[in-house]
Amino acid sequence: MMEKVFKVSLVGCGNISKTHLPILSNLDGVHLSSVCDEIPERANKAAKEYKCRAFFDFETMLREDDPDCVHICTPHYLHVEMARSALSKGINVLCEKPLAISGESLSLLRKTAAESGAVLGVCFQNRYNEAVIKAKEIIESKEFGKLLAARGNVSWFRNSEYYSDSWHGKLSKEGGGVLVNQAIHTADLLRYLVGSDVETIEAHVFNDSLKNICEVEDTAVVRYEFKNGIIGILNATNAFSLNADVTLDFYFEHGDRLHIEGLELYRIKDDGSFEKLTENSKDNFHGKSYWGNGHFALIRDFYLCLKEKRNFTIDAFEGGKATEEFLAAYQSSKSGKSVKVYYEF
Question: Is 40 exposed, middle or buried (0-12, 13-18, 19+ CB in 10 A)?
């Protein structure tokens, strides 16, 4: 029997497409058939490089090329509309984060996904980093005892040029700042590795460095109280002088600490000595180094799930939790109060 080959389209030929496209062009069982961008020059350039068809209108691409799956790499405000359109036609969707930027649109998308019979996946690729996989195993095994606390730190740099396009820094289009666009991956990892949904959030967001340039926050401090009683802290800023490696720390009852820095995992003992627990491979690395290297593994797993008719774990409900959390964080910052997180199931 001939192996199933998935016909794939991609919409949005900006920065993140440069991570998806080389993976799709070299992945077994996948045929990159078309790309789409409203800017013809970008679509044509990508189509020429990857030897596929170029479209300048999303609906036209879905109708004429009829893909099995579409990768959505567009600005945030387009994610829900495009995903719902594809899903309603029975087309599988792999969407970049965030899945949605409002609670109402997230609910609509989840409803469409549930009714469509097609698969919706969300790109939280850092769950597939070797350091995260190893940390998850250790935390769940209780090898170092009970987990007591967790924290994440994102210190990156975004200047006025970054916000000079048509959507970055626009609240109605980006949905927010550092919490939505940069630190969302670290927030997802905190919940994933702690192994519990969030009960309440208390947050403070503000704009220190680009007050007259953008409408969104460049800095956020968030306190998470997880349902299992663990407290998590996230410190995130785009006002640093460079893009430093993301760090995460997990503290255990016997004095050990797991420390993720960039792509590596360390065990830091009570006496200050440390042990490196991973050796990061540069194989299948695409995109900027501080993004992580999990895209290849995530995309490969997504298509294996389609082939084997298994559930893809980062679906409309799991992948949408980050939206429900950052919306609660903004509500908390505005009100000055702790906010309960309500997940839709």
Answer: exposed
Closest CA to 324 of 77, 66, 105: 105
Which helix (DSSP H) or strand (DSSP E) does residue 194 occupy? helix 184-194
The answer for 229, left when phi > 0, alpha when psi is -120 to 50, beta otherwise, is left
85-141 pLDDT per residue, tens: 999 999 999 999 999 999 999 999 999 999 999 999 999 999 999 999 999 999 999
Q: Name the amino acid, one letter, at 125.
A: Q
Give the Å distances, CA to CA, from 287 to 42, 92, 240, 291, 311: 18, 24, 21, 7, 27
For residues 24 and 9, the answer to whether their CB atoms sit within 8 Å is no
Average pLDDT of the residues in 30-43:
98
Using DSSP, state whether 101 is helix, strand or coil.
coil
Question: What is the share, in percent, of the chain residues with pLDDT greater than 90?
Answer: 92
Nearest C-alpha neighbor of 320 from the set 151, 79, 130:
79
